[in-house]
Amino acid sequence: MRITRHFTKQTESAYAAFEFRTASSEIRNPDGSVVFNLEEMEVPTAWSQVACDVLAQKYFRKAGVPARLKKVEENDVPSWLWRSEPDDDALFDLPEDDRFGGETSAKQVFDRLAGTWTYWGWKGGYFDGEQDAHNFFDEMRYMLCAQFAAPNSPQWFNTGLHWAYGIDGPAQGHHYVDFQTGSMVRSKSSYEHPQPHACFIQSVSDDLVNDGGIMDLWTREARLFKYGSGTGSNFSKIRGDGEPLSGGGKSSGLMSFLKIGDRAAGAIKSGGTTRRAAKMVVVDVDHPDIDDFINWKVLEEQKVASLVAGSRMISKHLNEVMSACHDDAVDAKDRYNVNKNKSLKKAVIAARKSLIPENYIHRVIEFARQGYTEMEFPTYNTDWDSGAYLTVSGQNSNNSIRVTNEFLEKVLSDGDWDLLRRKDGEISKTVKAKDLWNDIGYSAWACADPGIQYDTTINEWHTCSSTDRINASNPCSEYMFLDDTACNLASLNLFMFRQDDNSFDVEGFEYAVRLWTITLEIAVLMAQFPSARIAELSYKFRTLGLGFANIGGYLMATGYGYDSVEGRAICGAISALMTGTCYATSAEMAEELGPFSSFEENREPMLKVMRNHRRAARGAVDGYEELSVLPVPLNAEENPDADLATAAVRAWDLALDRGEAFGYRNAQVSVIAPTGTIGLVMDCDTTGIEPDFALVKFKKLAGGGYFKIINRMVPVALHNMGYSDDQIKTMISYATGYGSLKDAPGINHETLAGKGFSDDVIALIEDVLGEAFDIKFVFNKWTLGETFCKETLGFSDDQLEDVSFDMLKALGFSKAEIEAANTHVCGAMTLEGAPNMADKHLPVFDCANPCGRIGKRFLSVDSHIRMMAASQPFISGAISKTINMPNAATVEDCMEAYMLSWRLGIKANALYRDGSKLSQPLSAALVDEEDLAGDMEEAVAASPSTVRAEIVAERIVERFVAERLRPPHRRKGYTQKATVGGHKVYLRTGEYEDGRLSEIFIDMHKEGAAFRSLMNNFAIAISIGLQYGVPLEEFVEAFTFTRFDPSGTVTGNDTIKMSTSILDYIFRELAVSYLGRNDLAHVEPKDLLPDAMGEGAKEGNLPASAGDALEAVQKVASRGYLRKLLVIDGAKAESRNVQAATATEVVAEPLPQAVGAQVTPREEISQSMQAISTEVMEKVDRQMDQAREARMKGYEGDPCGECGNFTLVRNGTCMKCNTCGATSGCS
After folding, report:
1. One of 396, 471, 474, 612 is an active-site residue; which one?
2. Which of 67, 153, 641, 1060 has the fewest other C-beta atoms within 10 Å?
3. Which DSSP helix (H) or strand (E) runs through 490?
4. How far is Cα 724 from Cα 708, in angstroms, rounded to an integer?
5. 3-class DSSP assignment, residue 356
6. Which among 191, 77, 180 is positioned nearest to 134, based on CA atoms?
7. What is the rounded CA–CA span in Å between residue 238 and residue 249?
8. Is the dihedral of CA 1000, 1004, 1008, 1011 positive or negative?
9. Is the separation of the CB atoms in 659 and 607 below 8 Å?
């Protein structure tokens, strides 16, 4: 084939237009530990640090690269294309440690990729002459370096290691077809024929142990998972539950085998670095076990919830039983007798009410009788990699259901639907189609699975229907073709084809598409495959997967919204131009090399599909051949880029004309993949067909740290909209912040100076404001210095150590002042509300999620679906995309989204409703502050009149009769941080010198002003009551068990795990800490001495000196805080509290004890104060703050499974990490 130059010059190096720099790469976990480090590497100057990190960590060969190489002569290959191998003689002269290493330059990677493609292209006869090969080599290197395009990850991993460095290894069971002889060959080498394919579809038959059967599939999957590829299979051939077996008996059904495969995939991925095995499970909607499959993950998620709640409840009740068995107030001989030990009887009754198994209760009592003092019962949490999720099945695959037009029409007509037995085709069961559809909608709403694949649409666009039908897809759903085939992918960065006049570079794009189509075709020729069958069919049909990325960024830069008629018209035209050019190139290769071997068999169905593609490109609304659902055609009048629309039609005219004359070299040519990791390498703002997830990004610096930067498309778009440079600068500063408190509203240099801040301290603050996500994170002892905070600002050590301490609030700044300064310094992270911004322009900047703290706008569900529909008529395969839905979406919304996707001709769809996974936090608040306030009023009104009267009476009596006892100015207390029903609560106490509670402070993190003010004033009211002598016991009795939202699970508190309201939680905590009311706790407080040994006669009778010392300690130590350690001051203090006792009398009342701890009388315990480590609590707080901050930045809120950073974003149907590039998909 003739290859001309477009981006390079024959007289210059392919890299002549680029500057290179020496950089370093380091990826760290959130705890600071190093995941990866490379001190020096050569990279293009224009590449971001993230792109450099991904290249270095993921794609650089880390070892085995020889320091000295020699060429291996081949007579049929030009000398400049000869492959290399280690020069053993030259290596021998080097020190042993210097002989082999890793890749350290981006040029090495570009050269080995492009060189290998050119080498195999030459051997396969793809070039007319040597100059064409040289042109191809340089142009491919240029496009890789310029970030115009990138192949899928397996190409970066594997391609060229043998050609460039002579790296090899033993065969791994792969096969390939010799392109010269057409014979099947079992590989004898790991890398001579690389494995460049990311996506696989494998068949599975209704056979247990033979080749192609169920157990054989697990082996084939393992071979793919081991090397990071993904696979999908349709399991519909497997018999349903109860179907007869040939040897007698009945089948155990589909689900039993799916669970085996799920556990196998989980075991394989657990030993590697991928977040989970990339696997797709597809089942037809007429399978007898379809209802079980639909509800599979729903039930498994319910099991997780049951394991979490049940394990904690069992632990609570069994520990209460154990504790009651060691009640010192009961005679030793009666402690284990339920009828004589009242506390034990109460604990047993409570356990029975919670349906704790009777034998468990008896077991604990018997353990206690045998001398055991504690019992551990494992509890679970909802983390995605926790023991709860590992216990259940269905967590290692994407699930999809194949639905036909017939089924969907039955849904609309409320008709019956027959489920068919697999072997004889007889009816197994008849159900209502609408009931099945409702189950699908509910399951998608509840757990984001299953997705839908529209079988009729898929097979009506099938190019090789004469051979067989399409049954399944790869894990991300973009590759759909025959079973036992593979596809290698590449994607073009659309932003690189935007011209200064906002038009699309049609000529450059067509050129790039042509060369990348040739490249992917060469990859088929050079590849090896994990099985002989896949090698045979992949060679026979030669499917390719060229796609694009950054459509969201391109549209924003050109000034068109993702949810706009113009945006969809541009996307459709680009899709049509790309695939049309791909097929035209495929026909060009067929002219010289011949069409794919099964073309003649499939000539008619393939040309029929080509004609339908061209009709859609020409804007036809009818006249399509054998299509049940009509596609969304191009409308040239809606496209603001007339040249692009014209080029799209021209490309399909050429593709069809050439195909009719010469056939096609490839059965499929295009898909829209998630482009996760490769999107980062290309510095794409958006991936695949996705919109942007945030306007303001946090870009990584080479030396560490991050800086905020607006999406690079935003300034371009604003300029195109007619805004002046000054206006654009102001709007960008509004979004990203000024990074300085100078001239900030409310809090600025002048107001800080008035609070005692010196110029030097203000300078320290200014130095770190640029990286700050919130100015509250800057005002701390680490930035300002502990000495300044204590001596100048007057803060105590307790305040500075308190993770919830708000220094700005303590300095007297109001919430409004803090928020105004925060927006000025850190930015709003949205353009909503920006000065000079016209409302009509806001849709251009809409993202998948609301942006920043104040952003309200985000793209609708329909906008995602309609963008897919605009592109799908011009894609050979399908489109990988997840439709984002808000938490408020209903089951009906889910069903309608699936139905709309069908009506618009989309081939597959998956939904993700915010909060549908237990393991992922909600991005939206559970309830609004107005609802909370209303619920509180209703709860008070609904309280029994006696309770309300009791509260009022207490306040009246104590207010007028008692004398107020104010606490000292410098007082002790503690701060308890916890989360109730997803809402963070800070409870701060103040104490008198003798340890009694004197006041409380309540703050709700990030709640609205009304609710926070309400809680603040409620705390003041309680504090005044305490200071006038109202017993804490009365408040506890009045407010525990009050019921209103937020309520539910409590995290962050070691004794309280559930609450019926915020007030219930607060007064449970106070009761446990100050009253010893462990009956209100769910986990009793830990004993100070878990190995305490009692029964000493005089251990508690301390000498006076010790007692005096402890008395001094008590004046500064918070009794409420130390309930967790049970620091006891001996008998002397107790005798002081009992007026009727003499100085030598003691009270033998036992303290409330921890679960399983040996009970020791009060006079027998003595322990000095110990330093309390807050490491665990701070670690949890940091993780929660990181998750919350990540959600505000547009990320998912989960940590990356590889590097641990909270930078995961949705990427098609997968997840990718924007820090290290890890992806849960197969590309």
Report:
1. 474
2. 67
3. strand 485-493
4. 22
5. coil
6. 77
7. 16
8. negative
9. yes
Is 478 tagged catalytic? yes
Handedness of CA 1000, 1005, 1011, 1012 (dihedral sign): positive
Q: Where are the beta strands (DSSP E) in 187-333?
A: 199-201, 230-234, 279-284
Q: Where are the alpha helices (DSSP H) in 668-804?
A: 676-681, 713-720, 725-736, 749-754, 759-769, 781-784, 786-787, 797-801
User: What is the crossing angle of helices 551-558 and 713-720, to 10°?
Assistant: 30
pLDDT of amino acid 815: 87
* Number of helical H runs and strand E runs in the chain: 42, 29
Q: Is 1089 exposed, middle or buried (0-12, 13-18, 19+ CB in 10 A)?
A: middle
- Contact between residue 1001 and residue 987 where contact means Cβ atoms under 8 Å apart: yes
| Residues 6 or more apart whose Cβ sits within 8 Å of residue 621 | 630, 633
Instruction: Tell which phi-psi region holds residue 357, choosing left (phi > 0), alpha (psi between -120 and 50) or beta.
Output: beta
Question: Cα separation of 297 and 285, whole Å?
Answer: 17
Cis peptide before 1046 (omega within 30 of 0): yes
Mind listing the pLDDT tens digit for each residue in 870-910? 999 999 999 998 888 888 899 999 999 999 999 999 999 99
Residue partners of 654: CB distance under 8 A and separation at least 6: 580, 584
Q: Where are the beta strands (DSSP E) in 1182-1224?
A: 1208-1211, 1214-1217
Backbone angles phi, psi at 374, to 5 degrees: -150, 160
- Tokens, residue 1223: 């992806």
Per DSSP (E only), the strands in 541-625 are 544-549
- Cα 53 from Cα 59, distance rounded (Å): 10
Distances (CA, A) of 717 to 727, 777, 834: 13, 33, 15
Amino acid at 199: C
| 524, 544 Cβ separation under 8 angstroms | yes
Q: Report the alpha-carbon distance of residue 830 to residue 842 in Å, rounded.
A: 10
Which among 448, 445, 440, 447 has a CA at the least distance from the CA of 408? 440
Sign of the alpha-carbon torsion through 1115, 1118, 1119, 1122: negative
Residues 484, 467: Cα–Cα separation, whole Å: 13
Q: How far apart are CA 1213 and CA 964, in angstroms?
A: 63
Q: pLDDT per residue over 665-714, tens digit each?
A: 999 999 999 887 899 899 998 889 999 888 887 655 545 555 566 788 89
Q: How far apart are alpha carbons 1077 and 1085 in whole angstroms?
A: 10
The structure's pTM equals 0.75
- Active-site residue, selected from the candidate residues 199, 447, 476, 1200: 476
**Cα diameter, the chain:** 113
Contacts of 15 (CB under 8 A, 6+ apart): 107, 141, 142, 145
Residues whose CB falls within 8 Å of the CB of residue 516, separated by 6 or more in sequence, listed in order = 143, 149, 490, 492, 546
Q: Which residues pair with 233 in a beta bridge?
A: 281
Q: 657: how many CB neighbours lie within 10 A of its CB? A: 14
Single-letter residue type at 433: A
DSSP 788: I
Residue 267 CB contacts under 8 Å (≥ 6 apart), including other chains: none
Which of 221, 478, 1084, 1202 does the annotation list as catalytic? 478
Instruction: Please state, in angstroms and rounded to a whole number, the distance separating the CA atoms of residues 36 and 29.
Output: 10
Q: What φ, ψ does residue 696 adopt, rounded to 5°?
A: -110, 125
CB 577 within 8 A of CB 583: no
Which segments of the chain have a pLDDT < 50?
270-276, 702, 922-937, 939-940, 946-961, 1086-1110, 1124-1177, 1180
Residue 476 catalytic? yes
Copy the structure tokens of residue 636.
């040239």
